[in-house]
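okkk here we go again. third time trying to get the pyridoxal-5'-phosphate bound version out, last two times i messed up the smiles copy paste (missing a bracket lol). double checked this time i swear
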Amino acid sequence: MRLNEIWRSNYITNMGRQHDELEKTLKTYLNVNNLLLFNNGTTALILGLKALDLKGEVITTPFTFPATLEALDWCGLKPVFCDIDKNTLNIDIKKIEKKINKNTTAILAVHVFGNPCEVYEIDEIAKKYNLKVIYDGAHIFGSTFDKRSLGSFGDMTMFSFHATKIFHTVEGGALAFKDDVYAKKLKMLRNFGISDSGEILLSGINAKLNEIQAAIGLEVLKMFDLEKNKRLIIKKIYEDNLKDIDGIKFYTDKSSSQQYFVVGIDEKDFGISRDFLYEKLKKYNIYTKKYFSPLCSTFNWYSDLETAKKENLLVANKVVNEVIALPFYGDLNEDEIKRSVI
Ligand SMILES: *Cc1c(COP(=O)(O)O)cnc(C)c1O
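finally!!
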């Protein structure tokens, strides 16, 4: 239907009807002040950092997908790694202040596996030191915190709509932001810096989401609630079957978007290592993921960063060898789940 509409309209990209409808729909759905679409989450994050006009150093986490760090690199910002909390796997707020110096301009935190960061505490630190706060919210579609949309905290939040995410547009992303002043700038940045009147005012890039992707998003959105509810049932089956086993820890909060179901394997108590389990499950055609391994602090181009050193990131370096994301999608049936866990 929508594809026919697009075909008949002769308008297949450059902020068309499907695009604008998805933008408006998601702004309401995610309950945020402003929302703009991009061609993927990574460009959304890069342009968000650019719109905030940051310089110098940004405090961030090593336990994330490479894109978080690569966005900083593309903006010429120096990452300052801060260790993570062993229970939430998010940036450890107790360790942030020690990393702040006169060059620090922002905190880039990640709501890992959709579990909310300590947003109020991060806000407080940012206020005290006059820093911007930007969240990689690639995993938080539809998540709330303290009865508010999780994407409404901080100055900006990036969403990824990659095909592997619970809501997706095949490839795509969005930025949610509080302050209207960024809207004009971000619209130009995603479209070669072209202003409404056709002048080129900024050095932008091509980061537009096309009509076909937007149409897919509008259709996928209709399935989101059902998919999430199915996953909540699957999560319960996993937990009921795994909870009495020593050495397994659950990381997927009930309030999260249910994008991943992640457990931690403590080799000593569980009896075998995460890596052994990963290989063993593979033999039974059960494919799991070692999210997020390797740590971003181990990338070779950060090898001379003091904050990337292992001794400064003890929790992250331990956790990265323990976590494993189990198969998690709505159509997984109970027998298949039991096959994974028994
Ligand atoms: C998927 C993901 C990204 C990248 O998003 P894309 O839309 O694929 O560019 C960034 N950060 C995290 C944490 C992700 O999981």
